[in-house]
Amino acid sequence: MAREMRAGHRCYNTSPRAPILAAPAAPHSTRWTTIVMHPWLAQRTAQFDSSGIRKVFDLAAKLKNPINLSIGQPDFPVPQEIKTAAIDAIQGDRNGYSQTQGIGELREQLQTRIDAEYGHDDRKVLVTSGTSGALVMAMLAMIDPGDEVIFFDPYFVMYPALVGMVGGRAVTIDTYPDFQIDVDKVAAAITPRTKMIVLNSPANPTGVVAGEEQVKALAELAAQHNIALLSDEIYRTFCYDAPLPSPAAHNPDTIVVDGFSKSYGVTGWRVGWVHGPAAIIDKLTALQQYTFVCSPHPLQWGALAALDVDMTAQVATYSDRRNTIVAGLRDAGYEVAPTGGAFYVFPKVPDGQGTAGEFVARAIENELLIIPGNIFSARDTHFRISYAASEETLARGLDVLSRLRG
Ligand code: PMP
After folding, report:
1. Pocket of ligand 1 contains residue 272 by CB under 6 Å
2. Considering the domain boundaries, does residue 41 fall inside one?
3. 3-class DSSP assignment, residue 319
4. Is the peptide bond before 350 cis (omega within 30 degrees of 0)?
5. CA-to-CA distance for 24 and 53, rounded, in angstroms?
6. Which phi-psi region, left, alpha or beta, contains residue 262 (left: φ > 0; alpha: ψ -120 to 50)?
7. Ligand 1 atom with minimal separation from the 132 CA
8. What is the pLDDT of residue 154?
9. Statement: residue 54 has pLDDT above 90
């Protein structure tokens, strides 16, 4: 028999495979979802499900010649010297565990770059199992049950899931329509339970780069309230109009997560890093020892080689594609906020065309794969396009979107 609880509170399932009512991952939703929970599953697993995005990928699998603008990873080939370094590491029998904190050579190079950029006395780096690994460990290490974590809506899908997993409470700040952060809104959302603010710039899913002034004000606000500020800078390389304003430049206690996945097209390698105050990084290192153990060892050698590879040409190509897609969408009559980074745009569904879910269903009927906004947001009014795709695919996608606009 299922016992019903209020959304956001604990859920009990009292018999094997009983359907229970559980709060969906989205922090703002009051909708109930019925999910079948195996009795062995922990209550925390009721906090998240990935059915929305899976639905899009399931539909994609059925299409013969899909125009795929849904993928969150670069389409350029991994530069040969990076591949060679990883292959050499495997051939050279560097296949055992590495040190928990990452191979010394990689850590030293990252540390040198970080020190040169920020010059903080107490800033230390740890090589992680992707940026995701760093995010998981930061939440586990810093968020107690009931702690509040502020982040911006639209958000990267992992944030509400991870906050829920550790028993925290997600507090979202709406950033529509321009997706810039409003620091006054953040200040108003701070309570005695606020433990962390998460900033992601350039952002997934909007591609928006937070402005220098806002980033500085946010960094100062976090310092003033003694709240942890976690900056997810995984798209830092893909910053087209100016270098990325990082809150770490204004708040020496900022925890920064970053990774090789997107910058070098190695999403499958699972190599990232986190840097921040030494006491936090030491605790994350201990946590890594008992969880991920280390980032894949031979691939850390590939990552080390990547640090010497110039990706300017690839980034320039993506900048051109950003211009093409934004101009194409605006010509077709779509409303698109100015975007300065990552490889996403987040246009609004035209008035009279229903929800983003309905609009995306029509796009998929036309072989175009895009992601509805409610995967990333309380609202279902926008859709995500990834322009990590060939010019030809982008042109085909724009063609379908023009037709759908009518
Ligand atoms: N943060 C953001 C904002 C992302 O978009 C992603 C990947 N989609 C990640 C973190 C995780 O990246 P990684 O492959 O390094 O785990």
Report:
1. yes
2. no
3. helix
4. no
5. 14
6. alpha
7. 16
8. 98
9. no
pLDDT tens, residue by residue, 320-352: 999 999 999 999 999 999 999 999 999 999 999
pLDDT digits (tens, 9 = 90+) for 268-288: 999 999 999 999 999 999 999
Residue 261 Cβ < 6 Å to ligand 1: yes
**pLDDT tens digits along 367-403:** 999 999 999 999 999 999 999 999 999 999 999 999 9
Per DSSP, 154 falls in state S
Q: Residues 229, 219: contact at Cβ < 8 Å?
A: yes
Q: What is the pLDDT of residues 207-220, one digit of tens each?
A: 999 999 999 999 99
Nearest ligand 1 atom to the CA of 200 is 3
Task: Give the structural domain span for 63.
Answer: 52-77+311-405
Question: Is 89 a domain residue?
Answer: yes
Q: How far is the CA of 324 from the centre of ligand 1 (A)?
A: 25
Residue 183 covered by a domain: yes
| Residue 62, pLDDT score | 83
Query: Is residue 98 lining ligand 1, measured as CB closer than 6 Å?
Result: no
Q: CA-CA distance, 302 to 295, in Å (whole number)?
A: 12
- Domain check: are 86 and 218 in the same one? yes
Whether residue 205 has its Cβ less than 6 Å from ligand 1:
no
Do 171 and 213 have their domain in common? yes
72 within ligand 1 shell (Cβ under 6 A): yes
Q: Does residue 225 sit in the same domain as residue 144?
A: yes
Best CA proximity match to 388, nearest among 79, 75, 78, 156: 75
Q: Which atom of ligand 1 is nearest to the CA of 73?
A: 8
pLDDT band at residue 35, thresholds of 50, 70 and 90? Answer: low
Instruction: Round to whole Å and give the CA distance between 255 and 356.
Output: 34
Task: Note if the pTM is more than 0.90.
Answer: yes
- Asked whether 204 lines ligand 1 (CB < 6 A), one says yes
In the three-class reduction of DSSP (H, G, I as helix; E, B as strand; rest coil), residue 224 is classed as helix
Structure tokens at 252: 């020496």
The average pLDDT across 122-144 equals: 98
**How far is residue 125's CA from residue 127's CA, in Å, rounded to a whole number?**
7
- Best of 200, 234, 299, 386 for a ligand 1 pocket test (most atoms within 8 Å of beta carbon): 234
380 CB near ligand 1 (under 6 Å): no
Phi and psi at residue 184, in whole multiples of 5°?
-65, -40
User: Is there a cis peptide before residue 145, judged by omega within 30 degrees of 0?
Assistant: no
Q: Last residue of a domain, which of 262, 281, 306?
A: 306
